[in-house]
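Consider the tokenized backbone below.
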């Protein structure tokens, strides 16, 4: 795997997904080959429309967007308008995108690009893992073709964010998560344990707002909604987790976790209260250890500054938030 190997981002494009895409798109050296969408923060169709909006805003409408799973492997779909707004982007009211998704389904696109780029394709999954699970069912050899998979999801030694045990991306499709995590490919898991320590603040938003580019202003606008949700429901102050952008930075090698043990990881797929729980470092529910997964548990804590700088935010010394 090299830094310019092709990358597919599989996402449920809400606020932090959009920030992750902008982060990747701001580096012309990253070969973002395609984006696939899945239900989660919003519907798969709305996620595709949001992705097209972000691509057009960033001047990259050439990157194909493919629509994927509208529901979990069980046929359920839990969305999050209370976090990301009715439109998935903080109710910012962006115009209808000029472009349209490709007709190729997301899972088929993943398999095709893996076959066309054997041993080189990277996957970054920042939504429920239904598209990846479907791709695995289409082509069981996929783990041998993909160079690396980075997943934002799970909670190992940290409380969940949809139940006391479960993180949203895993909880939205535990069966898919279990299938993907146990498929035997090279995986880095980026759980709440680390994403909840890398926090964007009101100062970061104001620095983005003070910049002059359309992308930085857009980032500031959607971040306003995100900070408000976190202030009311999580921290009591305007701070928000860098879930998907941090996973994106890890996926392309721009952030290296300081602590990332390789351990077996399983997912509770029972119908009990711990359904969707990520279990790391001990045998799975069926008694097997499962393949090792690299679990990011600690980073330097400086990523939000990198994100703001990448998106064109003005220097901190120019902003007075008093």
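A designed sequence for it:
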């Amino acid at each position: 795997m090299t830094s310019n190997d092709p990358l597919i981002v599989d996402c449920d494009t809400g606020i932090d997904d959009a920030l992750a895409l902008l982060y990747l798109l701001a580096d012309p050296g990253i070969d973002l080959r395609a984006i696939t969408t899945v239900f989660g923060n919003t519907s798969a169709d709305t996620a595709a429309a949001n992705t097209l909006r972000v691509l057009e805003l960033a001047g990259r409408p050439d990157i194909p967007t493919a629509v994927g799973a509208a529901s979990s492997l069980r046929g359920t779909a839990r969305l999050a308008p209370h976090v990301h707004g009715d439109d998935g982007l903080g109710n910012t009211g962006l115009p209808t995108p000029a472009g349209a998704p490709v007709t190729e389904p997301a899972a088929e696109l993943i398999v095709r690009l893996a076959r066309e780029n054997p041993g080189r394709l990277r996957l970054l999954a920042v939504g429920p893992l239904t598209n990846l699970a479907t791709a695995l069912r289409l082509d069981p050899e996929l783990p041998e073709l993909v160079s690396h998979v980075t997943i934002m999801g799970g909670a190992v030694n940290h409380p969940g964010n949809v139940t006391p045990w479960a993180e949203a991306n895993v909880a939205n499709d535990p069966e898919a998560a279990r299938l993907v995590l146990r498929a035997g490919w090279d995986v880095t898991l980026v759980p709440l344990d680390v994403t909840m320590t890398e926090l964007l603040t009101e100062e970061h938003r104001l620095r983005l707002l003070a910049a002059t580019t359309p992308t930085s202003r857009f980032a500031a606008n959607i971040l306003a909604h995100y900070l408000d949700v976190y202030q009311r429901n999580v921290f009591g102050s305007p701070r928000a987790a860098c879930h998907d952008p941090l996973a994106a930075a890890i996926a392309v090698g721009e952030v290296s976790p300081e602590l990332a043990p390789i351990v077996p990881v399983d997912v509770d797929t029972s119908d009990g209260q711990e359904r969707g729980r990520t279990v790391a470092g001990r045998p799975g529910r069926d008694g097997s250890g499962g393949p090792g997964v690299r679990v990011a548990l600690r980073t330097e804590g400086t990523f939000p500054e990198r994100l703001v700088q990448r998106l064109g935010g003005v220097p901190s010394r120019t902003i007075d938030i008093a």
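Residues 8 and 112 are 12 Å apart (CA to CA).
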